[in-house]
């Protein structure tokens, strides 16, 4: 395994954003980085598909974006810090995307977080 | 000569910025978190530091993957805030101290830390939220700042052992600046949390409490972890504890704990605060 591949499958449910992921996800992450600017967020909302094309997203990245599928974006090389900027366009916070990724309701996800307090 | 008066570390969760803007301090969800800062405010009032060296990680505001330094030191007269994409307010810029920045840059490079330097830098919630927590209502606070950015966006991230050494070098750099200044070293991020993947929502209270204890008495113990081990034990974003380790390692004198606080959860994160005083 090359040194730039940190994903050895030993941490469940986790993709380490390493060089391999960074190569795979560059276009997707570059598009999401552009969402720091309000005019880019507006341009995306006017024509989502055209905006994806402008950044050269591959089919897998494009499908994940159009479906707002966070696990799909991560599988396509997305980095969560940039994806959070995409989520922000739709006013989704990290608990919304946590709930989506774990298949829980947001309320159940929040209850799970509180349960970490323990006894 | 400049003197390090303490190290102050906190989580920097984006939601904190919204809670401050909306004045949610007394709400049930937020009260136990904000109460953790009362003793910090009293200490800052008493000690009145002149400069804050701010160790933090950019989350894709100033740096993108086209050009991502592992370590970068700001050397600007001011540090602006910008739209991060999800609604935190843009605030007036923070005061810089470029002469002190360049002294630190020279000293670090002399010690073979080949850092990037930035004469312009936008700072994100990892810088802003701690400032708003420590100096409430003061935008910007009456303190000059030197930002030290550490990459935790993309692996390979700097090893905890290297971060510890960087902190040591940072402490020597600060101590050798020939101005009478009280310097506070701030580290932001953590504690355990994971935003991405089916493991999202992971928190490890036992590991966090161990870190809080070791940071006081035996910070070198944390240098034995690899970054991948930190991901496993503290979550993908829990690696930010390296910012705390750098701030702690910068302390050069006899270290005593003034205050610590730990609260689960704020947003997806276990939120911690630690204030250490540095006696000569």
Please provide a written account of the structure.
- The complex is a heterodimer of chains A (119) and B (280).
- Chain A is an all-alpha fold and 119 residues long.
- Chain A is built from 8 helices and no strands.
- Chain A has a domain of 73 residues: Dioxygenase LigAB, LigA subunit (Protocatechuate 4,5-dioxygenase, Chain A, Orthogonal Bundle).
- In chain B, α1 crosses α5, α4 crosses α6 and α6 packs parallel to α9.
- Chain B is globular and about 45 Å long.
- Helix content of chain B is 33%, strand content 22%.
- Chain B starts with a strand and ends with a strand.
- In chain B, β9 and β10 form a beta hairpin.
- Classes of the chains: A mainly alpha (119), B alpha/beta (280).
- The interface between A and B is large, with 52 and 38 residues.
Spell the H/E element sequence of chain B: EHHHEEEEHEHEHEHHHEE
Question: What class would the helix/strand composition of chain A place it in?
Answer: mainly alpha
Percent range for β-strand residues of chain A: under 5%
> What's the CATH architecture name of the domain at 19-91 in chain A?
Orthogonal Bundle
In the CATH scheme, the class of chain B would be Alpha Beta
Radius of gyration of chain B: 17 Å
Average residue pLDDT of chain B: 97
Percent helix of chain B? 25-40%
Helix content of chain A: 55-70%
Number of helices of chain A: 8
Instruction: Write the element-wise H/E pattern of chain A from the N-terminal end onward.
Output: HHHHHHHH
**pLDDT < 50 stretches of chain A:** none
The tally of strands of chain A reads: 0
Beta percentage of chain B is 15-25%
Count structural domains of chain B.
1
Task: State the total count of DSSP E strands of chain B.
Answer: 10
Main interface by residue count: A-B, 52 and 38 residues
Count, helices of chain B? 9
Largest sheet entry of chain A: none
Regarding quaternary structure, how should these chains be classified?
A: heterodimer
Identify the notable features of this structure and list them briefly.
heterodimer, A: 119 residues, mainly alpha, Protocatechuate 4,5-dioxygenase, Chain A, B: 280 residues, alpha/beta, Protocatechuate 4,5-dioxygenase, Chain B, eight-stranded mixed β-sheet, two-stranded antiparallel ribbon, 10 strands
